[in-house]
Amino acid sequence: MKLVLLSFATLFFLASCAQKPQRAGIVKVATSSKPVANEAVATFAEGCFWHAEIVFQSLVGVRDAVSGYAGGSTTDPTYEKVASGNTGHAETVQVFYDPAKITYQELVAAFFASQDPTTLNRQGNDQGTEYRSIAFYRNNEEMGIINAEIKKLTDSKKFRNKIVTEVVPFTKFFPAESYHQEYISRNPGNPYVQNVSIPDFEEFKKEYKGHFKP
Question: Which domains, and CATH codes, for the chain?
């Protein structure tokens, strides 16, 4: 029985985002990207930021999505601190996009299409407050767009359970350590990437009706 439980625990660990990267001790902390001319910024949390990063980077009009932390009170979050659940932060992505090519409304639609917004503090095997669903807004217009999308999804009964996504004002974003940036493309052999990230992304591409990069 102990062997069975150990095997189960190992599989669960490999199928979750909470894995310690192999080169954590030799990488530098990532620096924050800044929007270029005619570019806007959007911020979302929807579980593992590795997954969210490729979701938004796949869309026409998005230049980059940076993995990081937001939503908490700690001013010096690290992966280990956030994973403890004591910082209030969630794994988050900062999305840099061209409003002439993709609208904020389309980004919000992609946000809800790439997750299960009805699971509180959880996405798949990733469980904890750091994996909660959050849509951050920068002004009343963005808040209205988010709430309108939630109402639309609720009225359509797309989800069996109530949407629990937090809709909160954006305050500050902290970029994650550099080994988390572009994690999926840099670690294609990772078990979580192969068994969770890529299958989830393929499902998103079937669900979302927007424009994808070739």
Answer: 40-207 (3.30.1060.10)
CA distances (Å), origin 199, targets 41, 111, 194, 203, 206: 27, 17, 7, 6, 11
In this prediction the pTM is 0.89
Short-list 127, 119, 105, 131, CA closest to 52: 131
pLDDT 10s digits, 168-204: 999 999 999 999 999 999 999 999 999 999 999 999 9
Give per-residue pLDDT as tens, 49-108. 999 999 999 999 999 999 999 999 999 999 999 999 999 999 999 999 999 999 999 999
Mean predicted lDDT score pLDDT of the chain: 89
Candidates 17, 40, 42, 48; catalytic one:
48
Active site residue 48: yes
**Closest of 167, 186, 165, 168 to residue 177, by C-alpha:** 186
Tell me how many helices (H) and strands (E) the chain has.
8, 8
Q: Quick check: 10 pLDDT over 90?
A: no
User: How distant, in Å, are the alpha carbons of 35, 36, 84, 150, 178 from that of 32?
Assistant: 10, 13, 23, 30, 10
Angle (CA) 10 200 149, round 5°: 130
Q: Are 117 and 151 in contact (CB under 8 A)?
A: no
